[in-house]
Amino acid sequence: MSVVSATRSLRQGLLAVAAGLLLVAAAAPVADALQFDPARIEQQAVSRYGQQGGQAVAQWVNMLGSLAGQPVSTQLRQVNDFWNTNARGGEDRQIWGQEDYWATPLETLGKGWADCEDYVIGKYFSLVHAGVDPNKLRMVYVRARIGGMGSSQSIAHMVLGYYETPTSEPLILDNLVGSIVPAGQRRDLQPVFSFNAHGVYVGSRASGSVERITRWQGLLSRMQQEGFRP
Question: What would the pLDDT profile of 141-166 be if each residue is shown by its tens digit?
């Protein structure tokens, strides 16, 4: 995402957190795994994006099937590699004609393009479908330093964090860096806040309901219309 759009997205996210801090709300109910009918999803992809979109979704479905029974470390690696490989990096304005749009996994694969949020969304729901505990996954807004060591310039960015325990150092899945490493090794990233389907977090502390993040609610609504049951 561009510096302008990323900064605007980060600011909007921070406003959502501020609103969440005023509430003591219950977490939104979620299923233990993302459920869907593969044939229906593939048919939708072909209808909306042509044969190439259908093939991309079919590859995703096959990848999800290969995750069954695998160790979490293998699931993280395969999911990270799949999304980083099967979507080209772009900006919402060029992909969707909007300043900030959170695409569903079907939309991202159909278009073949993604910005940082779209990569994270695809990885998050892939791992949830594989049976990874959603409580161990968080979408993390960060400030990412650009320009190398010593640079003071940063942009707003989103990565996926895997937390073995609520207070453990997370592993970071990122579209900008192919390897999965502990957060402490990503000194170019400064966390701001994180969220998942169960709530919003500042550090390791739950600070409000994810229902306050309107783009997340819109994303879930569109996924349900596509036939997903998140």
Answer: 999 987 666 667 888 999 999 999 98
